[in-house]
Design goal:
mainly beta; 3 helices; 42 strands; 58% strand
């Protein structure tokens, strides 16, 4: 059948039919149909796949009658009316609308918002092109099946008004039902439609129960304060008398954003005390590629964050930093403040305020060749205490020690290719440090130190491809001969107490992570690496090495594996199967092949299963403030049972204490209309400020109201 396209009331149609409609419709309305008739002087009848396009709206129907005298449309269904955004679709069996489709009545109507929320009604009214009023309503985003027509949840109401401009839904005499059973009744209810991401109003409650606080309920209220900022206020009440108000403030700027989270509490855990915390972050882009970042972390007492489940950190870090990173240079200036939450530390005797300025530049050396670098750094840290002696804490550090330092370092390296493919590298560095130390009976005063290191590195890579398997093997023996010497006063070591011996620093001029200590003496770093590349995608890497010294200066502790004339043996292995499974491990073995330190990581990342495990074993080392050995195992697992259900399990076990330290279990269920998150955790450790605690959490979100949650898979009908 011939389809005819008709621009309503254009000059050509006027000449054919003699009909007239308002000027606005003449300019913007378009009709498409299989058949078109003009009956009498006032009616236009379109039938067969009728479509009308008007101001971005689209209406589809089986038959349409336009009454010119009444300026109305009578439409026979099935009717589908879509708005300009495509997010709102209205279905009906029949309709009586104004010619511009801004007003009218639709029978047996169903409103679909953002392909999520469906609102079925006996009748719908279009009002002023902005509102849709529906009577005798059932609203849900759950899919229903013929054999089971009751949705998982639904809202029944006498009347619902949808404001398309404000993107809000107003319910009159609403009743919330779960599996057909009435749960609660609300005389008036306002909720955002699914197309609106931010709207003031109450959010879904969250249940949290702990052994210390008892049953608790959180009822968040979200308040927009313009398009660039908002505030969330969450009262939190528990059965054991805890009263908490949580706050979150967010604001976006042209060049950055800030977010502030905090809470204030009165409870019976610390009677009479007002408890609380505040965390704030911000980041801004400044001219000339500079970046400004800041963070604020503070808590009223050591146990507050753990008691209320906000964080498990035990050292709070507040800072502000100005930085710039370029291809050949880096600049950073920062101020950092620390607050310890550990029971065995005192905020008066730890460095509570620290400042750093770093300038680092890389450059080519022209005729000399190779690559050079220059770094200038200043550092200072202050303690609140003014005592020049070490107190009862066993850290061997004066309680009031304040330190300021300025350091300048230059480095250079150049590589050559020798006969037989041997790569030779000449490398060296020199550094000068000036220290001012106050409030320390032993190290107090001004000190200076110079340090220089130079070396030669030889690498000889061997490459072979096995014809039968197609695998490529790369074996590379490496030898470094290093000379290093320092001169100057005695410097206390505060920033280099913990030293790791691994593949990353096996071939380094200096293995100390900070600036207070530098590696001294003549030594040889020797090692061998083997890498296997398989054509199927997986690869294997192995590194073995150790350090041979002319003399032991006693700079390294037992657990580092670097002490003695000769260090322990280092062996590291990594395997990547390219199918989501990665394994890596590292051991440090003494000459008797006894384990000094070892760690292992296994990760599996598949669609159905994800698993991450780690294990660490280390001997005791008083130099690293670890009087007891460390033997721990931790894991974190996720199992996706199906597209809607995910289970999570985590735990940590201390083999020295022979007890678990942390365990957690969680289940997340998400389908097309609801998201449920259940969690259960147990902290087994205790101290003077915290006790073992069990934490239970439950949150339920109805998908289809607001734009916060993403819908899961739809229900299957059989």
């Amino acid at each position: 059948m011939l389809r005819r396209r008709l621009a309503l009331l254009t000059a050509g149609f006027l000449a054919l039919s003699g009909l007239t409609l308002p000027a606005a419709a003449q300019e913007k309305a378009t009709l498409v149909s299989d058949r078109l008739e003009i009956t009498g002087a006032n009616e236009l009848v379109a039938s067969g796949a009728v479509e009308i396009f008007y101001q971005g709206q689209r209406l589809r129907a089986s038959r349409l009658i336009y009454d010119q005298k009444a300026d109305r449309l009578r439409i026979e269904g099935p009717i589908v009316l879509t708005d300009a955004s495509g997010n709102t679709i209205l279905f009906a069996s029949e309709a009586d609308l104004a010619a511009d489709m801004r007003e009218g009545i639709l029978s047996s109507a169903r409103l679909v918002l953002n392909q999520q929320l469906q609102i079925a009604a006996n009748q719908a009214m279009r009002i002023d092109g902005r509102y849709t009023a529906l009577d005798q309503v059932v609203a849900s985003s759950c899919k229903v099946c013929e054999g089971s027509p009751t949705p998982l949840w639904e809202i029944r109401a006498r009347r619902v008004v949808h404001d398309q401009e404000a993107r809000q839904l107003y319910f009159d005499q609403a009743q919330f039902r779960v599996a057909g059973l009435p749960i609660f009744y609300v005389p008036r209810l306002r909720m955002p439609d699914p197309t609106l991401e931010r709207s003031s109003g109450f959010l879904m409650p969250v249940i949290r129960t702990t052994s210390d606080l008892g049953f608790g309920l959180k009822i968040p209220y979200f308040q927009t304060i313009g398009p660039d900022k908002d505030l969330t206020i969450t009262p939190y009440l528990t059965a054991k008398g805890s009263r908490t108000v949580e706050l979150r403030y967010r604001q976006a700027f042209t060049t950055g954003a800030i977010e502030v989270n905090g809470a204030i509490t009165r409870d019976k855990l610390l009677p009479g005390d007002t408890r609380g915390y505040v965390f704030a972050t911000g980041a801004f882009d400044l001219p000339d590629n500079f970046k400004l970042t800041f963070g604020l972390q503070a808590a009223s007492d050591n146990a507050y964050l753990l008691d209320y489940g906000y964080s498990d950190t035990d050292l709070l870090d507040s800072r502000i930093e100005l930085s710039r990173t370029r291809r050949n240079g880096f600049f950073s200036a920062r101020v950092v403040s620390f607050q310890t939450l550990r029971d065995d530390e005192d905020n008066d005797t730890i460095p509570s305020l620290m400042t750093d300025v770093t300038f680092h530049r890389r450059f080519s050396l022209g005729a000399l060749g190779g690559e050079g670098g220059f770094r200038l750094q200043t550092h200072s840290h202050l303690r609140t205490s003014d005592s020049p002696f070490d107190g009862p804490d066993p850290d061997d550090i004066a309680d009031g020690r304040d330190v300021s330092r300025i350091s300048a370092r230059v480095d250079w390296r150049r590589s050559f290719i020798l006969p037989m493919g041997i790569e030779a590298t000449i490398l060296g560095e020199a550094q000068a440090d000036g220290y001012t130390i106050g409030q320390d009976a032993i190290y107090g005063g001004d000190s200076s130190r110079t340090h220089a290191a130079a070396g030669v590195e030889l690498r000889w890579p061997w490459v072979k491809t096995v014809a039968a398997s197609g695998a490529t093997h790369v074996i590379e023996p490496v030898v470094q001969l290093i000379w290093a010497k320092q001169n100057g006063g005695l410097i206390p070591n505060e920033d280099s107490a913990l030293v790791e011996f691994d593949e990353g620093n096996l071939f380094s001029l200096d293995r100390f992570p900070g600036a207070d200590a530098v590696e001294d003496g003549r030594r040889a770093n020797i090692g061998l690496t083997w890498t296997r590349y398989d054509p199927s995608g997986w690869n294997l890497g192995l590194t073995i090495g150790r350090v041979l010294r002319e003399k032991d200066f006693g700079q390294f502790g037992t657990s580092s594996g670097l002490g003695g004339d000769n260090s322990d043996w280092l062996a590291g292995l990594s395997v990547d199967w390219q199918n989501g499974f990665v394994a890596s491990g590292r051991v440090v073995l003494d000459n008797d092949f006894s384990l000094t330190k070892g760690e292992m990581r296994l990760t599996l990342n598949r669609d159905k299963l994800a698993l991450a495990t780690s294990a660490i074993w280390s001997v005791a080392d008083p130099l690293e403030n670890r009087p007891d050995p460390t033997r721990e195992f931790a894991f974190d697992a996720r199992w996706r049972a199906n597209s809607a259900l995910t289970a999570k399990l985590s735990g940590r076990y201390d083999f020295v204490r022979d007890q678990g330290t942390l365990a957690g279990f969680g289940v997340e269920y998400r389908n097309d209309c609801v998201a449920v998150d259940f969690s259960l955790s147990r902290r087994f450790t205790s101290s003077t400020s915290v006790s073992p605690t069990t934490d239970f959490g439950l949150s339920v979100d109805l998908i289809g109201f607001g734009g916060g949650k993403t819908a899961g898979p739809s229900r299957r009908c059989y």
